[in-house]
Amino acid sequence: MWGTVVVVSAAASGLGAFMATLVTVTGALCKAFAAGALLTMLTDDLIPEARELAGLGAGLAAVLGFAVAFALHQAGA
């Protein structure tokens, strides 16, 4: 199952990277769609499993990870 997810994700990311180079508005839409897809996958598949294995701290760790990623992105802009 995870091998299929990796292959499909790689193909989708390649297509998304190509689409993002076409037009600025299209690029923004592609990035917004990709971000939503990533959050959906995390919420549906990974967070419940992480909570089952790591307990309640898994959700807090995920939120802190997104906060750090956002802060690093803003610092680099």
Indicate the topology.
Elements lengths: L1 H19 L3 H31 L2 H20 L1
Helix pairs in contact: 1-2, 2-3
Strand content: under 5%
SS-based structural class?
A: mainly alpha
The N- and C-terminal alpha carbons lie at a distance of 37 Å
The radius of gyration over CA amounts to 15 Å
Helix share bin = over 70%
Low-confidence segments, given as residue ranges, are none
Biggest sheet descriptor? none
Task: Describe what you observe in this structure.
With 77 residues, this protein is an all-alpha fold. It is built from three helices and no strands. It has helices spanning 2-20, 24-54, 57-76. The longest helix is centred in the middle third of the chain and has 31 residues, at 24-54. The chain starts with a helix and ends with a helix.
Which terms would index this structure?
3 helices, 77 residues, mainly alpha, 91% helix
Summarize the structure.
With 77 residues, this protein is an all-alpha fold. 91% of the residues lie in helices and 0% in strands. Helix 1 (2-20) runs antiparallel to helix 2 (24-54) and helix 2 (24-54) runs antiparallel to helix 3 (57-76).
